[in-house]
């Protein structure tokens, strides 16, 4: 077992290898590892965030659905109300229309009756004059007896 | 094993395995490789262990290219498995440095990573069967080959010396020359705080200085020698286990040689290796249950090498499994101690 110059050469070799490592191995490896660590941390944080966002979205969606359901109920209620309103109104309209038509018919009937009566009256008057003239065998001067005739008409 | 024609004795075998391939100037003035321990010793300080340097540089570059390859391609996307493995090592070293080193330094973490991986690789050479690479080297005409750089005290102390230089540099950088010197003479007994009379100050300071210098020098020594001692002992035990193989084979070889004569023919070893290989292959292909594979392997080893050979296998496996812990732990300790020493160098006491 001799101590010799191997000692010095080995010592130098070590320095060179350490320098190699310092220069070419350690920095890129550490850089890559640190970057990956950061990436993983970011990824985990992002997934956490996404989870939270998902939960929030779910709550929001539930809220929306609840609101929509409320609104739908409201609309259905309104529709029902409106439905009965329309029904009611239609009924009212029908009733009033019926009344109106009845009234119109009645007034028409009354008018026709009056007209008939009037016609009847005039024809009665002329008939009466005709009858009277036949009875008297003599032409009655219609002008002369106008006053009497009018009185008669009025009486009928 | 020795390239000589005769089979080496046990002592020669061990010595051969513990001899570095030394290049230097022979006493007669010409440069060349040493043949044997005496010649290597005669070369004095200005000689180099070529095998130590070759393997440590090879493994150092192995570390560099392995990590550089990953570092070049590293991005913040999904890592490949290999990248993930490299990054987990880096992460481990980084957290060790963060835990132990309280200053800020761009050097400490890469230093720690280099030391950890490089020393682990060098230690790992210990798990390669002790005869393989020396045998290959001797076939290629290289007489000696010690493949575990960390079993060479020059390699471990060389690294420790670099760390020591860094300790001095850090001490001076963070405390200044004056601060560093005053730390040396006012610790552990501070005459000012203890209220001693001025007369005894020089004596107390001299006493402190001796203590502090010892503790300062103990740092590189504890780093380098501890690593060397552990690995050297581990290597030696592997060599001894390898000797048990040889001894066991010898015991059984008397039986084998009664069959084959003086020399066991090469085809015997080829058949033996082939049958073990075939057994393992069949197991991997699912043709053979693992339990039966183990039994078959035992029987094959028993047949091939005899009972002692089997014992050697099991011992080798056991020690290798244990040593796997040792080499990792030693690499880790070297790294941690380096961090701690440098951390101490940057802190005021």
Topology, please?
The complex is a heterodimer of chains A (156) and B (349).
Chain A: H1 6-136, H2 146-155
Helix pairs in contact in A: 1-2
Chain B: H1 10-17, E1 22-25, E2 31-33, H2 37-42, E3 47-49, H3 50-73, H4 81-100, H5 108-124, H6 132-139, H7 153-186, H8 191-194, H9 201-260, H10 266-284, H11 290-346
Antiparallel strand pairs in B: 1-2, 1-3
Question: What is the tally of helical segments of chain B?
Answer: 11
Choose one word for the global shape of chain B.
globular
- SSE string of chain B, helices as H and strands as E: HEEHEHHHHHHHHH
Report helical residue fraction of chain A: over 70%
Q: What gyration radius of chain A follows from the Cα positions, in whole Å? A: 60 Å
Number of domains of chain A: 1
Overall pLDDT metric of chain B: 84
Q: Would you count the extended β strands of chain A for me?
A: 0
The protein's oligomeric status is: heterodimer
Query: What is the ordering of alpha helices and beta strands of chain A?
Result: HH
- The residue-averaged pLDDT of chain A reads 89
Number of domains of chain B: 1
Task: Give the structure's gist in a few sentences.
Chain A is mainly alpha-helical and 156 residues long. Chain A has helices at 6-136, 146-155.
List the keywords:
heterodimer, A: 156 residues, mainly alpha, 2 helices, 90% helix, B: 349 residues, 3-stranded antiparallel beta sheet, 11 helices, 3 strands, 3% strand, disordered N terminus
What would your notes on this structure say?
The complex is a heterodimer of chains A (156) and B (349). Chain A is mainly α and 156 residues long. Chain A has one domain (3-155). Chain A is built from two helices and no strands. Chain A starts with 5 loop residues before the first helix and ends with a helix. Chain B is globular and about 85 Å long. With 349 residues, chain B is an all-alpha fold. The A-B interface holds A 1-11, 13-15, 17-18, 20-22, 24-26, 28-33, 35-36, 38-39 and B 18, 20, 22, 24, 40-41, 43-49, 52-53, 56-57, 60, 63-64, 67-68, 70-72, 74-77, 79, 86-87, 90-91, 94, 106-107, 109-111, 113-115, 118, 149, 152-155, 157-159, 161-162.
């Amino acid at each position: 077992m001799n101590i010799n110059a191997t000692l010095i050469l080995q010592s130098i070799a070590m320095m060179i290898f350490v320098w190699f490592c310092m220069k070419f191995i350690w920095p890129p490896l550490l850089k890559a590892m640190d970057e990956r660590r950061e990436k993983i941390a970011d990824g985990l944080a992002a997934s956490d965030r996404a989870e939270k966002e998902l939960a929030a979205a779910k709550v929001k969606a539930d809220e929306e659905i609840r609101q929509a359901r409320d609104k739908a109920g409201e609309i259905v209620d309104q529709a029902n109300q409106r439905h009965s309103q329309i029904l009611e109104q239609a009924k009212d309209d029908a009733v009033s229309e019926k009344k109106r038509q009845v009234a119109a018919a009645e007034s028409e009937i009354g008018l026709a009756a009056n007209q008939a009566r009037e016609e009847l009256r005039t024809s009665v008057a002329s008939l009466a004059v005709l009858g009277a003239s036949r009875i008297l065998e003599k032409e009655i001067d219609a002008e002369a007896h106008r006053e009497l005739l009018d009185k008669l008409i009025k009486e009928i | 094993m020795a390239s000589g024609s005769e089979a080496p004795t046990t002592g020669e075998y061990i010595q051969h395995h513990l001899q570095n391939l030394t290049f230097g100037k022979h006493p007669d003035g010409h440069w060349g490789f040493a043949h044997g321990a005496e010649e290597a010793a005669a070369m004095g300080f200005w000689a180099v262990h070529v095998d130590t340097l070759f393997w440590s540089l090879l493994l150092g570059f192995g570390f560099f290219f392995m990590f550089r390859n990953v570092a070049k391609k590293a991005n913040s996307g999904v890592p490949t498995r290999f990248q993930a493995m490299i990054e987990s090592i880096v992460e481990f070293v980084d957290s060790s440095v963060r835990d132990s080193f309280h200053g800020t330094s761009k050097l400490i973490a890469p230093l720690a990573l280099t030391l950890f991986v490089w020393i682990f690789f060098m230690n790992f050479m210990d798990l390669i069967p002790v005869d393989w690479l020396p045998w290959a080297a001797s076939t290629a005409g290289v007489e000696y080959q010690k493949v575990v750089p960390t079993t060479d005290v020059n390699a471990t102390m060389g690294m420790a010396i670099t760390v020591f230089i860094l300790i001095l540099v850090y001490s001076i950088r963070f405390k200044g020359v004056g601060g560093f010197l005053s730390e040396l003479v006012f610790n552990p007994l501070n005459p000012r705080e203890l209220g001693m009379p001025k007369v005894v100050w020089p004596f107390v300071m001299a006493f402190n200085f001796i203590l502090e210098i010892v503790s300062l020098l103990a740092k590189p020594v504890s780093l380098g020698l501890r690593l060397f001692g552990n690995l050297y002992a581990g290597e030696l035990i592997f060599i001894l286990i390898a000797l048990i193989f040889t001894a066991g084979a010898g015991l059984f070889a008397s039986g084998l040689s009664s069959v084959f004569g003086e020399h066991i023919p090469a085809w015997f070893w080829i058949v033996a290796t082939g049958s073990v290989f075939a057994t393992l292959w069949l197991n991997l292909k699912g043709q053979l249950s693992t339990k039966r594979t183990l039994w078959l392997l035992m029987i094959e080893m028993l047949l091939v090498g005899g009972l002692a050979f089997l014992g050697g296998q099991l011992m080798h496996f056991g020690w290798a499994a244990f040593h796997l812990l040792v080499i990792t732990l030693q690499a880790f300790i070297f790294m941690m101690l380096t961090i701690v020493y440098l951390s101490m160098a940057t802190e005021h006491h």
